Protein backbone atom coordinates (compact mmCIF):
# COMPACT_ATOMS: atom_id res chain seq x y z
CA UNK A 1 0.00 0.00 0.00
CA UNK A 2 1.20 3.51 -0.76
CA UNK A 3 2.36 5.11 2.46
CA UNK A 4 2.25 8.72 1.39
CA UNK A 5 -0.83 10.52 2.58
CA UNK A 6 -1.74 13.32 0.23
CA UNK A 7 -2.92 16.37 2.15
CA UNK A 8 -5.30 19.01 0.90
CA UNK A 9 -6.22 21.53 3.57
CA UNK A 10 -9.34 23.64 3.54
CA UNK A 11 -9.36 27.29 2.61
CA UNK A 12 -12.65 27.78 4.48
CA UNK A 13 -12.34 26.82 8.14
CA UNK A 14 -15.68 26.39 9.88
CA UNK A 15 -16.74 28.30 12.95
CA UNK A 16 -16.29 26.14 16.05
CA UNK A 17 -19.27 25.49 18.32
CA UNK A 18 -19.26 26.68 21.92
CA UNK A 19 -17.89 24.00 24.26
CA UNK A 20 -20.99 23.93 26.46
CA UNK A 21 -23.24 23.45 23.45
CA UNK A 22 -21.51 20.52 21.76
CA UNK A 23 -24.04 17.72 22.19
CA UNK A 24 -22.88 14.42 20.71
CA UNK A 25 -21.83 13.87 17.09
CA UNK A 26 -23.50 16.95 15.64
CA UNK A 27 -20.52 19.11 14.67
CA UNK A 28 -17.63 17.91 12.50
CA UNK A 29 -14.08 19.18 12.12
CA UNK A 30 -12.56 20.78 9.02
CA UNK A 31 -10.89 17.68 7.57
CA UNK A 32 -11.35 13.95 7.08
CA UNK A 33 -9.15 11.03 6.09
CA UNK A 34 -10.20 8.80 3.22
CA UNK A 35 -8.74 5.91 1.22
CA UNK A 36 -10.16 3.52 -1.34
CA UNK A 37 -10.03 -0.19 -2.00
CA UNK A 38 -10.46 -2.24 -5.12
CA UNK A 39 -9.42 -5.79 -5.81
CA UNK A 40 -6.56 -4.87 -8.16
CA UNK A 41 -4.96 -2.06 -6.12
CA UNK A 42 -5.88 -3.08 -2.57
CA UNK A 43 -6.19 -0.11 -0.18
CA UNK A 44 -4.83 2.90 -2.02
CA UNK A 45 -4.89 6.66 -2.47
CA UNK A 46 -4.82 7.67 1.22
CA UNK A 47 -5.61 11.36 1.57
CA UNK A 48 -6.69 14.04 4.00
CA UNK A 49 -9.21 16.38 2.45
CA UNK A 50 -11.61 19.09 3.62
CA UNK A 51 -14.66 17.56 5.36
CA UNK A 52 -17.17 17.08 2.55
CA UNK A 53 -20.14 15.02 1.35
CA UNK A 54 -19.48 11.76 -0.47
CA UNK A 55 -20.70 11.06 -3.98
CA UNK A 56 -21.81 7.43 -4.23
CA UNK A 57 -23.61 5.40 -6.83
CA UNK A 58 -27.17 4.64 -5.63
CA UNK A 59 -26.39 0.96 -6.28
CA UNK A 60 -23.44 1.03 -3.82
CA UNK A 61 -23.70 -2.17 -1.79
CA UNK A 62 -23.64 -0.40 1.55
CA UNK A 63 -27.12 1.01 0.83
CA UNK A 64 -28.64 -2.36 0.03
CA UNK A 65 -26.88 -4.99 2.08
CA UNK A 66 -25.41 -2.98 4.95
CA UNK A 67 -21.80 -4.02 4.44
CA UNK A 68 -20.24 -1.41 6.69
CA UNK A 69 -18.14 -1.25 9.85
CA UNK A 70 -17.46 1.54 12.29
CA UNK A 71 -15.33 2.34 15.32
CA UNK A 72 -15.42 5.01 18.02
CA UNK A 73 -12.53 6.46 20.02
CA UNK A 74 -11.62 9.77 21.58
CA UNK A 75 -8.77 12.30 21.64
CA UNK A 76 -8.13 14.58 24.62
CA UNK A 77 -5.99 17.70 25.02
CA UNK A 78 -4.15 18.08 28.32
CA UNK A 79 -3.57 21.35 30.16
CA UNK A 80 -0.01 21.35 28.78
CA UNK A 81 -1.40 21.06 25.25
CA UNK A 82 -0.50 17.38 24.70
CA UNK A 83 -2.93 15.36 22.56
CA UNK A 84 -3.72 11.89 23.88
CA UNK A 85 -5.52 8.87 22.43
CA UNK A 86 -6.86 6.06 24.61
CA UNK A 87 -5.83 2.55 23.49
CA UNK A 88 -6.34 3.37 19.79
CA UNK A 89 -4.58 0.21 18.58
CA UNK A 90 -7.46 -1.80 20.06
CA UNK A 91 -9.97 0.06 17.92
CA UNK A 92 -8.12 -0.82 14.74
CA UNK A 93 -7.70 -4.43 15.86
CA UNK A 94 -11.46 -4.61 16.47
CA UNK A 95 -12.13 -2.85 13.15
CA UNK A 96 -10.31 -5.69 11.43
CA UNK A 97 -12.21 -8.34 13.42
CA UNK A 98 -15.46 -6.69 12.31
CA UNK A 99 -14.10 -6.43 8.75
CA UNK A 100 -13.34 -10.14 8.79
CA UNK A 101 -16.89 -10.99 9.93
CA UNK A 102 -18.46 -8.79 7.25
CA UNK A 103 -16.20 -9.99 4.42
CA UNK A 104 -14.35 -6.66 4.17
CA UNK A 105 -10.60 -6.68 3.34
CA UNK A 106 -8.34 -5.96 6.32
CA UNK A 107 -6.81 -2.54 6.82
CA UNK A 108 -3.17 -2.03 7.86
CA UNK A 109 -3.73 -1.19 11.55
CA UNK A 110 -0.47 0.70 12.02
CA UNK A 111 -1.10 2.77 8.92
CA UNK A 112 -4.66 3.53 10.02
CA UNK A 113 -3.32 4.83 13.36
CA UNK A 114 -0.70 6.89 11.56
CA UNK A 115 -3.41 8.37 9.31
CA UNK A 116 -5.54 9.13 12.37
CA UNK A 117 -2.66 10.94 14.07
CA UNK A 118 -2.07 13.02 10.93
CA UNK A 119 -5.69 14.16 10.63
CA UNK A 120 -5.91 14.89 14.36
CA UNK A 121 -2.75 17.01 14.17
CA UNK A 122 -4.32 19.04 11.34
CA UNK A 123 -7.59 19.55 13.24
CA UNK A 124 -6.11 19.75 16.75
CA UNK A 125 -7.75 23.13 17.41
CA UNK A 126 -11.06 21.26 17.38
CA UNK A 127 -10.24 19.22 20.49
CA UNK A 128 -12.40 20.72 23.24
CA UNK A 129 -10.94 21.01 26.73
CA UNK A 130 -13.95 21.73 28.99
CA UNK A 131 -14.74 19.00 31.56
CA UNK A 132 -16.70 16.13 30.00
CA UNK A 133 -15.75 17.08 26.44
CA UNK A 134 -13.42 15.36 23.93
CA UNK A 135 -12.88 14.85 20.23
CA UNK A 136 -14.88 11.78 19.21
CA UNK A 137 -13.34 9.94 16.28
CA UNK A 138 -15.40 7.80 13.94
CA UNK A 139 -13.40 5.56 11.56
CA UNK A 140 -15.67 3.59 9.23
CA UNK A 141 -15.70 1.43 6.13
CA UNK A 142 -18.42 1.31 3.47
CA UNK A 143 -18.94 -1.03 0.53
CA UNK A 144 -19.07 1.11 -2.61
CA UNK A 145 -19.26 -1.35 -5.50
CA UNK A 146 -22.32 -0.42 -7.58
CA UNK A 147 -23.90 -3.88 -8.00
CA UNK A 148 -27.02 -5.54 -6.62
CA UNK A 149 -25.80 -9.14 -6.44
CA UNK A 150 -25.63 -10.35 -2.85
CA UNK A 151 -21.92 -10.94 -2.40
CA UNK A 152 -19.07 -9.08 -0.78
CA UNK A 153 -18.25 -5.79 -2.47
CA UNK A 154 -15.08 -5.48 -4.55
CA UNK A 155 -14.76 -1.77 -3.69
CA UNK A 156 -14.68 0.07 -0.37
CA UNK A 157 -13.86 3.37 1.26
CA UNK A 158 -12.23 3.75 4.67
CA UNK A 159 -12.95 7.15 6.18
CA UNK A 160 -12.16 8.90 9.46
CA UNK A 161 -14.33 11.80 10.58
CA UNK A 162 -14.10 13.64 13.90
CA UNK A 163 -16.59 15.45 16.08
CA UNK A 164 -16.06 17.60 19.19
CA UNK A 165 -18.48 16.16 21.75
CA UNK A 166 -19.94 16.63 25.20
CA UNK A 167 -21.82 13.94 27.13
CA UNK A 168 -23.50 11.17 25.17
CA UNK A 169 -26.59 11.08 27.37
CA UNK A 170 -28.77 14.08 28.14
CA UNK A 171 -28.47 12.97 31.78
CA UNK A 172 -24.72 13.78 31.61
CA UNK A 173 -22.94 11.78 34.30
CA UNK A 174 -26.15 11.33 36.30
CA UNK A 175 -27.79 7.88 36.41
CA UNK A 176 -29.79 6.77 33.38
CA UNK A 177 -32.96 4.69 33.36
CA UNK A 178 -32.85 1.57 31.20
CA UNK A 179 -35.67 -0.55 29.75
CA UNK A 180 -35.13 -4.33 29.66
CA UNK A 181 -36.41 -5.56 26.30
CA UNK A 182 -38.39 -8.82 26.32
CA UNK A 183 -39.79 -8.91 22.78
CA UNK A 184 -37.20 -7.71 20.30
CA UNK A 185 -33.68 -9.15 20.15
CA UNK A 186 -30.51 -7.49 18.95
CA UNK A 187 -28.24 -10.38 18.04
CA UNK A 188 -27.60 -14.09 18.40
CA UNK A 189 -24.40 -16.05 18.77
CA UNK A 190 -23.03 -16.83 15.29
CA UNK A 191 -24.64 -13.67 13.92
CA UNK A 192 -22.99 -10.24 13.77
CA UNK A 193 -23.56 -9.14 17.38
CA UNK A 194 -19.89 -8.83 18.26
CA UNK A 195 -19.04 -6.91 15.08
CA UNK A 196 -19.31 -3.15 15.17
CA UNK A 197 -21.56 -2.93 12.17
CA UNK A 198 -24.61 -0.84 11.35
CA UNK A 199 -27.08 -3.75 11.31
CA UNK A 200 -26.80 -4.28 15.07
CA UNK A 201 -27.70 -0.67 15.68
CA UNK A 202 -30.49 -0.65 13.07
CA UNK A 203 -31.97 -3.71 14.83
CA UNK A 204 -32.06 -1.76 18.09
CA UNK A 205 -33.85 1.39 16.99
CA UNK A 206 -37.49 0.33 17.19
CA UNK A 207 -37.14 -1.00 20.72
CA UNK A 208 -35.23 2.10 21.72
CA UNK A 209 -38.00 4.30 20.40
CA UNK A 210 -40.55 2.42 22.51
CA UNK A 211 -38.28 2.65 25.56
CA UNK A 212 -37.91 6.40 25.05
CA UNK A 213 -41.68 6.87 24.85
CA UNK A 214 -41.85 5.23 28.27
CA UNK A 215 -39.19 7.55 29.69
CA UNK A 216 -36.13 5.25 29.42
CA UNK A 217 -32.85 6.33 27.78
CA UNK A 218 -31.79 2.99 26.35
CA UNK A 219 -32.64 -0.69 26.04
CA UNK A 220 -30.95 -3.54 27.88
CA UNK A 221 -30.86 -6.54 25.56
CA UNK A 222 -31.42 -10.12 26.60
CA UNK A 223 -29.95 -13.08 24.70
CA UNK A 224 -31.77 -13.91 21.48
CA UNK A 225 -32.31 -17.61 22.19
CA UNK A 226 -33.62 -17.92 25.77
CA UNK A 227 -34.52 -14.23 26.27
CA UNK A 228 -33.15 -14.71 29.72
CA UNK A 229 -29.51 -13.70 29.93
CA UNK A 230 -28.23 -10.14 29.97
CA UNK A 231 -26.23 -9.02 26.94
CA UNK A 232 -25.57 -5.29 26.59
CA UNK A 233 -27.20 -1.89 26.32
CA UNK A 234 -27.53 -0.31 22.83
CA UNK A 235 -24.46 1.86 23.24
CA UNK A 236 -22.69 0.32 26.24
CA UNK A 237 -21.55 -2.88 27.96
CA UNK A 238 -23.04 -3.34 31.44
CA UNK A 239 -21.74 -4.10 34.92
CA UNK A 240 -23.59 -4.96 38.16
CA UNK A 241 -22.18 -4.93 41.69
CA UNK A 242 -23.89 -7.62 43.72
CA UNK A 243 -22.82 -8.35 47.30
CA UNK A 244 -19.42 -6.80 46.72
CA UNK A 245 -18.57 -8.57 43.46
CA UNK A 246 -18.81 -6.80 40.11
CA UNK A 247 -20.32 -8.93 37.32
CA UNK A 248 -20.42 -8.28 33.60
CA UNK A 249 -21.74 -10.52 30.82
CA UNK A 250 -18.97 -12.72 29.42
CA UNK A 251 -18.00 -12.21 25.78
CA UNK A 252 -20.13 -14.84 24.08
CA UNK A 253 -20.02 -13.94 20.40
CA UNK A 254 -23.12 -11.79 20.43
CA UNK A 255 -21.97 -8.77 22.45
CA UNK A 256 -19.40 -6.12 21.75
CA UNK A 257 -15.87 -6.59 23.10
CA UNK A 258 -15.80 -3.07 24.52
CA UNK A 259 -12.47 -1.34 25.03
CA UNK A 260 -13.88 0.60 27.98
CA UNK A 261 -15.30 -2.69 29.30
CA UNK A 262 -11.85 -4.27 29.15
CA UNK A 263 -10.25 -1.22 30.82
CA UNK A 264 -12.81 -1.28 33.65
CA UNK A 265 -12.15 -4.97 34.32
CA UNK A 266 -8.43 -4.20 34.51
CA UNK A 267 -8.99 -1.22 36.84
CA UNK A 268 -11.22 -3.24 39.18
CA UNK A 269 -8.61 -6.04 39.33
CA UNK A 270 -5.90 -3.43 39.98
CA UNK A 271 -7.96 -2.26 42.99
CA UNK A 272 -8.52 -5.86 44.18
CA UNK A 273 -12.26 -5.54 43.72
CA UNK A 274 -13.66 -8.95 42.72
CA UNK A 275 -14.88 -8.89 39.13
CA UNK A 276 -16.39 -11.77 37.18
CA UNK A 277 -17.29 -12.18 33.53
CA UNK A 278 -20.26 -14.51 33.66
CA UNK A 279 -23.75 -15.41 32.50
CA UNK A 280 -26.27 -13.22 34.30
CA UNK A 281 -29.97 -14.14 34.24
CA UNK A 282 -32.32 -11.16 34.32
CA UNK A 283 -34.44 -12.94 36.90
CA UNK A 284 -31.48 -13.27 39.27
CA UNK A 285 -30.63 -9.64 38.74
CA UNK A 286 -34.21 -8.58 39.50
CA UNK A 287 -34.17 -10.70 42.67
CA UNK A 288 -30.86 -9.14 43.67
CA UNK A 289 -32.37 -5.69 43.14
CA UNK A 290 -35.41 -6.56 45.24
CA UNK A 291 -33.38 -8.05 48.10
CA UNK A 292 -30.98 -5.10 48.18
CA UNK A 293 -28.01 -7.25 47.07
CA UNK A 294 -27.67 -5.25 43.84
CA UNK A 295 -25.57 -2.37 45.06
CA UNK A 296 -24.70 -0.60 41.80
CA UNK A 297 -25.12 -0.86 38.06
CA UNK A 298 -23.34 1.04 35.31
CA UNK A 299 -22.73 0.98 31.60
CA UNK A 300 -19.38 1.46 29.86
CA UNK A 301 -18.54 2.66 26.36
CA UNK A 302 -16.34 5.11 24.51
CA UNK A 303 -19.18 7.51 23.89
CA UNK A 304 -20.90 7.03 27.26
CA UNK A 305 -17.65 6.54 29.32
CA UNK A 306 -19.17 5.29 32.61
CA UNK A 307 -22.87 5.80 32.91
CA UNK A 308 -24.48 4.88 36.23
CA UNK A 309 -27.81 3.08 35.92
CA UNK A 310 -30.36 4.28 38.45
CA UNK A 311 -33.33 2.20 37.36
CA UNK A 312 -34.16 -0.87 35.30
CA UNK A 313 -37.66 -1.52 34.02
CA UNK A 314 -38.43 -5.21 33.55
CA UNK A 315 -41.72 -7.10 33.29
CA UNK A 316 -43.73 -4.04 34.29
CA UNK A 317 -41.65 -3.51 37.41
CA UNK A 318 -39.33 -0.67 38.26
CA UNK A 319 -36.10 -1.84 39.87
CA UNK A 320 -34.44 1.14 41.51
CA UNK A 321 -30.68 0.79 42.00
CA UNK A 322 -28.54 2.63 44.59
CA UNK A 323 -31.56 4.86 45.33
CA UNK A 324 -31.30 6.12 41.76
CA UNK A 325 -27.95 7.76 42.59
CA UNK A 326 -24.39 7.32 41.34
CA UNK A 327 -22.74 4.51 43.33
CA UNK A 328 -19.25 4.74 44.86
CA UNK A 329 -17.55 2.38 42.43
CA UNK A 330 -19.22 3.98 39.39
CA UNK A 331 -18.05 7.42 40.56
CA UNK A 332 -14.52 6.23 41.31
CA UNK A 333 -14.27 4.44 37.96
CA UNK A 334 -15.49 7.51 36.11
CA UNK A 335 -13.01 9.81 37.86
CA UNK A 336 -10.10 7.41 37.39
CA UNK A 337 -10.79 6.52 33.78
CA UNK A 338 -11.38 10.10 32.68
CA UNK A 339 -8.38 11.23 34.76
CA UNK A 340 -6.13 8.72 32.95
CA UNK A 341 -7.63 9.62 29.57
CA UNK A 342 -7.06 13.35 30.12
CA UNK A 343 -3.58 12.83 31.53
CA UNK A 344 -4.42 14.34 34.94
CA UNK A 345 -3.57 11.14 36.83
CA UNK A 346 -0.88 8.54 36.10
CA UNK A 347 -1.54 5.79 33.55
CA UNK A 348 -0.07 2.65 35.14
CA UNK A 349 -1.35 0.49 32.28
CA UNK A 350 0.37 2.22 29.36
CA UNK A 351 -2.98 2.93 27.72
CA UNK A 352 -2.26 6.40 26.37
CA UNK A 353 -0.76 7.15 22.97
CA UNK A 354 0.47 10.68 22.36
CA UNK A 355 -0.12 12.40 19.04
CA UNK A 356 2.81 14.56 17.91
CA UNK A 357 1.39 17.93 16.98
C1 LIG B 1 -19.08 4.24 21.12
O1 LIG B 1 -19.18 4.19 22.34
O2 LIG B 1 -18.09 4.76 20.55
C2 LIG B 1 -20.11 3.69 20.27
O3 LIG B 1 -19.78 3.28 19.20
C3 LIG B 1 -21.49 3.68 20.77
C4 LIG B 1 -22.46 4.45 19.99
C5 LIG B 1 -22.27 5.91 19.93
C6 LIG B 1 -22.91 3.81 18.76
Describe this structure in words.
This protein has 357 residues and is α+β, with helices and mostly antiparallel strands. It folds into two domains: 160 residues, D-amino Acid Aminotransferase, Chain A, domain 1; 166 residues, Alpha-Beta Barrel (D-amino Acid Aminotransferase, Chain A, domain 2), CATH 3.20.10.10. 23% of the residues lie in helices and 30% in strands. It is built from eight helices and 18 strands. The strands form two sheets. Strands 1, 2, 3, 4, 5, 6, 7, 8 and 18 form a nine-stranded mixed beta sheet that branches. A hairpin with a 3-residue loop joins strand 2 and strand 3. The longest helix is centred in the first third of the chain and has 14 residues. The radius of gyration is 21 Å and the shape is globular. The two termini are 25 Å apart. The protein binds 2-OXO-4-methylpentanoic acid.
Radius of gyration: 21 Å
Number of helices: 8
Distance between the termini: 25 Å
Hetero compounds: 2-OXO-4-methylpentanoic acid
The percentage of residues in β strands lies in 25-35%
CATH architecture of the largest domain: Alpha-Beta Barrel
Largest sheet geometry: 9 strands, mixed
Shape: globular
Q: Can you tell me the CATH class of the largest domain?
A: Alpha Beta
Please identify the structural class as seen in this structure.
alpha+beta
The percent range for helix content is 10-25%
> Might you state the CATH topology name of the largest domain?
D-amino Acid Aminotransferase, Chain A, domain 2
Task: Kindly report the name of the CATH homologous superfamily of the largest domain.
Answer: D-amino Acid Aminotransferase, subunit A, domain 2
